[in-house]
Specification:
Strand content: under 5%
GO cellular component, one term: membrane
Keywords: Membrane, Transmembrane, Transmembrane helix, Transport
Number of strands: 2
CATH architecture: Up-down Bundle
GO molecular function: transmembrane transporter activity
CATH superfamily: MFS general substrate transporter like domains
Organism: Cyberlindnera jadinii (strain ATCC 18201 / CBS 1600 / BCRC 20928 / JCM 3617 / NBRC 0987 / NRRL Y-1542)
CATH class: Mainly Alpha
Strand order of the largest sheet: 1-2
Distance between the termini: 32 Å
Membrane topology: Multi-pass membrane protein
Largest sheet: 2 strands, antiparallel
C-alpha cells in the first residue's frame, strides 16, 4: 500500500500567541500556556500528553491516518444517515401503524440520541475509545435491521430508540479518536472530516428517493404493509451500509486504544507500544521511550480502573462526576465549557425549528413549495449533496491569516464559526422570501452549505478544547444539550403550525446569528496550534 508523506506542506510558521511556535521541519510545537490551563487538573498528565504529541508529530501523517480519517468519518456519516432515514420514512410509518397525530417516533428518536450521548459519549472516557468506536456502529446496524422488520408501532419505537442510541453515541467518539491520533499540522482535517455528515445525508436521501415514491401508500385511510414497504427498504439498505462500515472498523482499520487515553489511565507502556507499532509499520522514527513517560511521575489516581473498581454503578458514577468536574476546573475552562454547551443547545433548537417552520410561514404568505413526491426527494438529495462542501470550505478558512493593527491573526475555528453562523442567518432570513418550489430547492441547498460550515468548525473545536481525560464526557454533554433542545423542535412545530404563528421562525433565525457572539467570546483558539 502506498505510503503518505506530506511533511513539506506549506503552512504558516507562526501562530498568534507568542508562547507557541510551530516548527515546520519537525512538526513540533512548544507547550502552550493556555492548554496547560486546559489540562490543569493534572500537570503531570499534561506533560505526558505533550510527549505523546511530540511522538505523533515525529511519526507524521501515514496511511493509518488516512484510513482513520475515512473510517472515523463513517461515524459522522452513519449518525446523519440514520437521522435522515427516520425523517424521511416517519410519515409513512405513521400512516401504516399510527394514523395521524403527534409524531411520537421523532421524540423517541431524540431520546435515543440523548441516551447514546450519555452511555457511549461519557462511557468512552471510562471504558476506552476502542470498545465504543468498534461496537457503536455494529449495534446501530443490528437494531436498524430489527426496526425495518417491525409490524407494530411500540416495537418500531423500541428498536429505533436502540439504533439511534448507538448511532448518537458513536458520533461522540469518532472526532475524539481521530484527534488523538492526528499530527498537529493536520488538525485542520478535524474540521473537514465533517464532510461525511453531508455524505451520510446524501446517501440516505438517495435511498429514500429510490424506494419511497413508488413503494408507499398515499395516506392513513388505506395503508397495509403490502403497498407500503418503501420505509422498510430504507431501513434495510441503510442498516446494511452501517454493517459494512462496522466490519471495516473491525477488520480493515484494526484500531488500537488511543495513546492519550492509555496515559490518562496509567498505562504508559501500552501507549508507547501503540505508537511504536505505527512507526515500525510505516518506517517512521519514534524516539519516545517508556522511561521518558515514567520520569514525569505518576498521574492522579482518580481514573476509572475496571480491574480494581469493577463495572458497578457506584464506581462508574463517581468516575463520571470526576470527569464532569474537570470540565469546570478553572474560570477560563468553565467559561469555555459553558459557551460550547450553549452553542450546541442553540443550534440544536433553532435550526431544527426553523427548518420545520419555514414551510408553515411560506404557506401562510401565499407561497407554494409543494411538488411531487419524486421531485421532493430529488431536491432533498441535491440539498444534502451541496452540504458536503461546507466542511471542505471550513477546512480552508481556519488556515486563513490576515494582518490588522500591525498584528497577525488567524481566522481559525472561531472565525469560521462566526462566518458560518452569520451566513446561515442571512440565508435563513432570505429563505422567508421564497414562494416557489424552485426557490425552495435553491435556498435549501444554500442553507445546508453554510450551516455545515458552522457545524464543521464547532465539531472540531469541541473536543480540541476539552481536557484529554474528560474529552468524551465533554463532547457527550454537548451532544446531550443539542439533542435535548432539538427535541423541542417537533413540539414547537406541531403546536405552532396549528396556531399559525410566524414568531418562532424569526426568533430561531436571530438565535443562529447569536451563535457568532458565543464564538467570539470563546477563550481558546486551537487553529494552527497543538492541543496538549
Amino acid at each position: 500500500m502506498a505510503d503518505f508523506n506530506f511533511e513539506k506542506q506549506n503552512l504558516p510558521q507562526k501562530v498568534v500567541q507568542a508562547d507557541s511556535s510551530l516548527d515546520i521541519e519537525t512538526g513540533r510545537v512548544s507547550l502552550q500556556s493556555e492548554y496547560v490551563e486546559v489540562e490543569g487538573n493534572d500537570p503531570i498528565l499534561a506533560e505526558k500528553i505533550h510527549l505523546i504529541n511530540d511522538a505523533i508529530d515525529e511519526i507524521g501523517f501515514t496511511w493509518y491516518h488516512a484510513k482513520l480519517f475515512c473510517i472515523a468519518g463513517c461515524g459522522y456519516s452513519i449518525d446523519s444517515q440514520m437521522e435522515m432515514v427516520q425523517v424521511t420514512v416517519r410519515v409513512y410509518v405513521d400512516y401504516q401503524m399510527l394514523g395521524s397525530g403527534f409524531p411520537i417516533s421523532t421524540e423517541i428518536f431524540y431520546a435515543g440520541l440523548i441516551a447514546g450521548s450519555i452511555v457511549f459519549g461519557m462511557g468512552c472516557d471510562l471504558i476506552g475509545r476502542k470498545l465504543v468506536f468498534n461496537s457503536s456502529i455494529l449495534l446501530t446496524s443490528i437494531f436498524g435491521f430489527f426496526t425495518g422488520g417491525t409490524d407494530n408501532y411500540p416495537m418500531y419505537c423500541i428498536f429505533m430508540f436502540l439504533s439511534s442510541m448507538a448511532a448518537g453515541g458513536n458520533l461522540a467518539t469518532d472526532v475524539s479518536v481521530f484527534l488523538e491520533y492526528l499530527p498537529s499540522r493536520y488538525q485542520w482535517m478535524n474540521s473537514s472530516m465533517a464532510l461525511f455528515w453531508g455524505i451520510g445525508q446524501t446517501i440516505a436521501a438517495l435511498i429514500s428517493w429510490a424506494f419511497i415514491p413508488s413503494n408507499s401508500c398515499a395516506g392513513p385511510e388505506y395503508c397495509p404493509s403490502s403497498i407500503n414497504r418503501g420505509w422498510r427498504y430504507c431501513w434495510y439498505v441503510n442498516s446494511a451500509i452501517c454493517l459494512l462500515a462496522a466490519l471495516a472498523r473491525l477488520f480493515f482499520l484494526k484500531m488500537d486504544e488511543t495513546p492519550k487515553h492509555l496515559v490518562t489511565t496509567g498505562r504508559d507502556a501500552e501507549a508507547v507500544e501503540v505508537l511504536q507499532k505505527i512507526a515500525n509499520k510505516y518506517q517512521r522514527t519514534m524516539s519516545l521511550t517508556l522511561e521518558q513517560l515514567e520520569s514525569c511521575g505518576p498521574i492522579k489516581q482518580d481514573y476509572f480502573d475496571p480491574s480494581k473498581d469493577g463495572y458497578n454503578i457506584k464506581a462508574l458514577g463517581k468516575a463520571m462526576l470526576t470527569n464532569l468536574a474537570i470540565l469546570f476546573q478553572s474560570k477560563r475552562v468553565a467559561r469555555s465549557t459553558i459557551l460550547i454547551i450553549l452553542s450546541w443547545a442553540f443550534i440544536g433548537l433553532s435550526y431544527s425549528t426553523f427548518y420545520n417552520f419555514i414551510y408553515v410561514y411560506i404557506a401562510s404568505h401565499g407561497g407554494d413549495t409543494a411538488t411531487s413526491t419524486y421531485n421532493a426527494y430529488r431536491n432533498n438529495v441535491l440539498a444534502n449533496f451541496t452540504g458536503i462542501f461546507g466542511p471542505i470550505l471550513a477546512g480552508f478558512t481556519i488556515l486563513i491569516r490576515f494582518k490588522m493593527f500591525s498584528r497577525e491573526f488567524v481566522f481559525g475555528r472561531r472565525g469560521t464559526m462566526i462566518f458560518g453562523s452569520l451566513a446561515s442567518m442571512a440565508i435563513l432570513f432570505a429563505y422567508t422570501s421564497v414562494r416557489t418550489a424552485a426557490g425552495d430547492a435553491g435556498f435549501s441547498a444554500a442553507t445546508y452549505f453554510f450551516t455545515n460550515v458552522y457545524y464543521a468548525a464547532l465539531y472540531a473545536y469541541t473536543p480540541e478544547v476539552f481536557p484529554t481525560k474528560a474529552r468524551g464526557t465533554g463532547v457527550g454533554v454537548c451532544l446531550i444539550a443539542g439533542r435535548i433542545f432539538g427535541a423541542f423542535a417537533p413540539v414547537i412545530n406541531y403546536f405552532g403550525a396549528q396556531s399559525g404563528s410566524s414568531v418562532p421562525i424569526w426568533v430561531c433565525g436571530a438565535v443562529i446569528g447569536c451563535l457568532s457572539i458565543l464564538a467570539a467570546l470563546m477563550p481558546f483558539e486551537p487553529s494552527l496550534k497543538r492541543t496538549v
